[in-house]
């Protein structure tokens, strides 16, 4: 029988561990963070549903019990303040766009007047069409990709007698259809790209390669980091899409950042009515802010553009001047009318939808 060779065992290469939405970010090394940014080390997710039915937030909490106590406290705060449902998106690099779509449609479904808010959403998409034409996108192409999303929005209209009644279950079923869901992802990517290209002066100070961290032109950034499916969204893409469609996006970050009064969570806010960020080289309207939410309500942090970079979350948008926007207390997200933000949950390299439990429409 051969005896083990301790020296060989010590020098044998170790396999990189799989990093996904269930990984405790407090255990990530610098090398793993870089691999995550580069899209390496991910498990095969092709068998997972594109969008899943909601699961209790407690399910996510169970995954962190043996990990970071800080993350568990933040999950407990979300649970205590009613954010008790998570709608999971497939971790294929398109999770932000899939989560955005579901949250966008859920906001219409649970609005006081779904047909009215569906019309507002339809009009907001129509307003971006000239912008897409301006950047020389093929109208036949982007209209074909937009049609599935527009059809889903129009299905909220009472005049749409051919559609099944819209329920949470119906939305999930529709978005689990690969052809429909992927068309919507492409459409949102094209909207995002068109907005960045037509506002290039505002965004160019923040357009960096995620691998080299070198500056990119708006055209190169969009070709490399926005338009290809499977490319993860970062703060620039989130800002551009939220601004283009006129809808605020608020993201709960599960990270190691300091808690407020030993409780709370950091909400990163993008889009209309959030904190506007400017730099010394531009007057961008790109909106980005961090809300620290705890027992004392919302506290606005000055100078937070790089705040999440240290946690391996993203490259950040630099901020030189900050303007406060209107915010509801304690991050409740119960704004009136079309000002209600979409609420997402961020874990390492992954986005899901987080919502408050509501009586289902059946």
From TrEMBL:
The lineage of its organism: Eukaryota, Fungi, Dikarya, Basidiomycota, Agaricomycotina. Its EC number is 3.4.19.12. The keyword Hydrolase applies. One of its GO terms (biological process) is proteolysis. InterPro entries: OTU_dom (IPR003323), Papain-like_cys_pep_sf (IPR038765), Peptidase_C65_otubain (IPR019400), Peptidase_C65_otubain_sub1 (IPR042468), Peptidase_C65_otubain_sub2 (IPR042467). GO terms for molecular function: cysteine-type deubiquitinase activity; ubiquitin binding. Pfam families: Peptidase_C65. Residues 84-357 form the OTU domain. It is an enzyme of class 3 (hydrolase). GO terms for cellular component: nucleus. It catalyses: Thiol-dependent hydrolysis of ester, thioester, amide, peptide and isopeptide bonds formed by the C-terminal Gly of ubiquitin (a 76-residue protein attached to proteins as an intracellular targeting signal). Residues 309-342 are annotated as: Disordered. Residues 309-341 have a biased composition (Basic and acidic residues). This is ubiquitinyl hydrolase 1. It comes from Tremella mesenterica (Jelly fungus). Keywords: Hydrolase, Protease, Thiol protease, Ubl conjugation pathway.
């Amino acid at each position: 029988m051969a005896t083990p060779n301790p020296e060989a065992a010590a020098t044998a290469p170790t396999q990189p561990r799989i990093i996904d939405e269930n990984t405790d970010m407090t255990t990530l090394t610098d090398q793993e963070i870089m691999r995550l940014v580069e899209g390496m080390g991910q498990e095969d997710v092709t068998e997972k549903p594109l969008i899943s039915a909601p699961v209790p937030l407690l399910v996510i909490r169970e995954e962190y019990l043996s990990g970071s106590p800080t993350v568990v406290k933040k999950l407990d705060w979300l649970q205590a303040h009613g954010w008790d449902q998570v709608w999971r998106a497939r971790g294929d690099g398109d999770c932000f766009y899939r989560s955005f779509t579901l949250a966008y449609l859920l906001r219409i479904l649970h609005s006081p007047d779904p047909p009215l808010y569906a019309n507002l959403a339809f009009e907001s998409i129509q307003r971006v069409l000239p912008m897409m034409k301006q950047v020389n996108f093929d109208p036949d192409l982007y209209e074909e990709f937009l049609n599935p999303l527009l059809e889903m929005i129009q299905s909220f209209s009472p005049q749409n007698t051919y559609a099944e009644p819209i329920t949470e279950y119906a939305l999930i079923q529709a978005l689990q259809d690969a052809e429909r869901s992927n068309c919507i992802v492409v459409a949102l990517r094209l909207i995002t790209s068109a907005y960045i290209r037509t506002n290039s002066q505002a965004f160019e100070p923040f357009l960096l390669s995620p691998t080299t961290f070198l500056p990119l032109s708006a055209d190169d950034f969009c070709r490399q980091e926005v338009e290809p499916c499977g490319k993860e969204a970062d703060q620039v893409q989130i800002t551009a899409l939220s601004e283009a469609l006129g809808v605020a996006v608020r993201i709960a970050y599960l990270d190691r950042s300091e808690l407020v009064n030993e409780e709370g969570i950091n909400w990163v806010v993008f889009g209309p009515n959030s904190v506007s960020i400017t730099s010394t080289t531009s007057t961008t309207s790109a909106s980005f802010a961090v809300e620290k939410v705890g027992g004392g309500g919302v506290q606005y942090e000055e100078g937070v553009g790089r705040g999440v970079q240290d946690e391996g979350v993203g490259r950040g948008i630099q901020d030189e001047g900050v303007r406060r926007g209107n915010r509801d207390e304690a991050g409740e997200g119960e704004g009136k009318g079309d000002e209600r933000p979409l609420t997402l949950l961020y874990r390492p390299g992954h986005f899901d939808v987080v919502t408050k439990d509501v009586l289902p429409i059946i």
